[in-house]
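From: lab user (bench 3)
To: helpdesk
Subject: output format question, protein + flavin mononucleotide

Hello, I'm new to running complex predictions and I'm not sure whether the block I got back is the full result or only part of it. Here's what I submitted:
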Amino acid sequence: MKKILMTSFAGLNLTNPIIIGSSGLTNTPEKNTALEKAGVGAVILPSIFEEQIEIQTSKDIWTDCPKACDYILNSLNGMQLEDYLQLIEKSKNACRIPVIASINCYRDNGWIDFVRQIEMAGADAIELNIFGLNTEIDRPGNTVEDIYLQITRKVKSMVNIPVIVKMSKYFSHIVKLADDLRKVGADGIVLFSRFYQPDIDIHLMQASSGYVFSSNTEIADTLRWTSLVRTKLPDVSIASCTGIHDWEDIIKCILCGASAVELCSTVYQHGNEIIQAMNRSLEEWMLAKDFKSIEEVKGKLNFGEIQDPSLHERVQFMKYFSNRD
Ligand SMILES: Cc1cc2nc3c(=O)[nH]c(=O)nc-3n(C[C@H](O)[C@H](O)[C@H](O)COP(=O)(O)O)c2cc1C
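Helpdesk reply: Thanks, we reran it on our side. This is the complete output you should expect:
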């Protein structure tokens, strides 16, 4: 791989900006070796859920809900904690690229001790996918932000490897939360995670799940917030995620300020072959534009000189709609 594509994200040195997002694409050491061969910069293992950790480390607190316990233990992804640690260890032995563990969590409690074992198994970093919906009428909105900060602070105090926070986009002040995460020690943030998509089956009259893969139209928020966070917080290391489907999308994210991107849907849809093609096109584009490094491209088109990005966006919004009759 050519040096021109080298980048660093959350303190990790990557041969190129393409990271495979947490999913079934990375659930065996063999798949991770194949991804490395295809040219990815790093892999993020599938998430282990805090419930899986809690059940296996303190079974007693789950005795009231045996059905939930059974589902989490046997049906979810069948992942036992020992399997997860083995996946880290074997992937690390098989690959030279960074191997990042992932935890899906929403509470600041007992599961957090497990991060020490993840570090001991050899993970190069930990990504936290913090996801919990606030549906209690008397629970203030900022309790979700507080949970993000508490979990990140605690995980950071337990490990020496980088801690990355995969953020939801459903916050009223994303830039402030990114800044607060940096202050409690997050080494990098991912903008954004993509939630489970609910749908309704009107024929069966029941809830169903929406399409599991993203569409490239979902990139707009990824670009907007990568750009805004980069402009306001140039020291925060960002990986863009959601809706990135081709090499042009990767360039857009880097121009907005990303150090790397996390991909998932497009690799499911097109196979590992797309990675080499993306890397080649990225390099050709950089050479054609006379860029010598990803660092030179990074943030070139963020909100830079614009004094008030919010006002700027309002004006764009007015222009966007006023031209339509
Ligand atoms: C089949 C599948 C499984 C996924 N599993 C996880 C997971 O275990 N943990 C996680 O944080 N994200 C998971 N994701 C979300 C992806 O990592 C990624 O954030 C999301 O798909 C948006 O990226 P994309 O637009 O490139 O698909 C999964 C996505 C898919 C399609």
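A quick orientation on your result: The pocket of flavin mononucleotide is lined by residues 21-24, 46-47, 102, 104, 129, 166, 193-194, 212-214, 241-244, 263-266, 268 (CB under 6 Å). Let us know if anything else is unclear.
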